[in-house]
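Example (one chain per record):
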Amino acid sequence: MERTLVIVKPDAVQRGLVGEIISRFEAAGFEIVRMRLARPSEDLVRRFYSEHEGKPHFARLVTYMTSGPSCFAELRREPAIEQARALCGATDPDDAAPGTIRGDLGIDLPRNSVHASDAPRSAEREIALIFGEEADHRPAAAGAAG
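Predicted structure:
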């Protein structure tokens, strides 16, 4: 089953929208594998968004993502990545369609309320960064000792 990382960003956590956002994913058939609320370190945010380093918006993004706690959720379903990104809507809330998370709840850039992995490789990288390098998280086989 395909996995993705979703982040309910600091602006949405501050506005009390974690439940609403996560429930939209659950209603769309996503299963929560694991979830945690944490304020990420600057080092983690810099590694997470490393592809943006050197761009004009990078410093603002790091400041924003370290400004408060975020809710990090590893979710799964088939297809997870495509469906999560459709549910989130366009990156810029001004361009996001009504009914999408960013269209309904996003403020501006970077305060667009939610992140979702953009490809299988990024999902694996992001999940490892947030939750550690553990092996995949399939349930143990029936009768297996644990």
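Caption: Residues 135-146 have pLDDT under 50 and may be disordered.
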